[in-house]
Amino acid sequence: MTLRGRILALKQQETSHYSGRKTLLNRPVNSRSHTTLQHNHEHAEPLALSVINRLTWRGGPGDRILAEDLLATLRAEPLPGRVLPVDLEMLSILLEGDPELSTGAYLDLRTGEVCGGNETDPMMVGEDAAIDVEEEPDRWIYLAGVGSREGWRDMAAFAERQHDQSLRERLEQAIEGKGAFRRFRDLAHDEGIAEQWDLFSSDRQLGRAREVLAAEGIRGPRSMATSDE
């Protein structure tokens, strides 16, 4: 199994363990915005402006970039930067997956395909499956992983937004010390807020993926900027 397949399998196992659903809802809360704008501009404009204002006020990872993309769509303007059909969900998994399994990602500047850093190593995936990025260096760019620190900040931000003081304090205690991620997920599941956490975390991970791409002057096309419902 390739690195990408192993990461997706682990993600699937983790999701099934905590929520019993088939797939993790790795979509931002505003995932319908681009599709709605394209198909029903007149009726969607007030919704789009509301979402843009919300993103601007919220100021989370990638929010400014998504707001710019929505505004460009609303104005029927081209997206800034180079447009590629990048799978944001896959990119976010590769950038923020288990450090022992992932070493960042390579982006194909022709197709928008993303591949795990280890997929260039014949020792890891085999001679036939390995991607030779050195053969066409202008075709590929390397995107470094973001590390676990951002995931810890997501947990801290989620805990901070809880109105229940007791719950907030227990979540804050859970992220202290070794094993913070497991304790936090266990507590979120026990408290019945695992789905809220999944959506919050996924939204921020996708936002960071947008930021990584934007730093390289790359945007996903309108049809790929968010997942279909």
Tell me what the structure shows.
The structure is a single chain. The chain is mostly helical and 229 residues long. Residues 6-32 and 222-229 have low confidence and may be disordered. The protein contains 10 helices and 5 strands; from the N terminus they run ααααβαββαβααααβ. A hairpin with a 5-residue loop joins strand 2 and strand 3. Strands 3-2-4 form a 3-stranded antiparallel β-sheet, covered by helices on one side. Strands 1-5 form a two-stranded parallel ribbon. Helix 3 (41-58) packs antiparallel against helix 4 (63-74) and helix 7 crosses helix 10. The two termini are 29 Å apart.
Highlighted features:
229 residues, mainly alpha, three-stranded antiparallel β-sheet, two-stranded parallel sheet, 5 strands, disordered C terminus
List the helices and strands and how they pair.
Blueprint: H1 3-19, H2 33-39, H3 41-58, H4 63-74, E1 82-83, H5 88-96, E2 105-108, E3 114-116, H6 122-125, E4 140-143, H7 149-160, H8 165-174, H9 180-190, H10 194-215, E5 218-219
Parallel strand pairs: 1-5
Antiparallel strand pairs: 2-3, 2-4
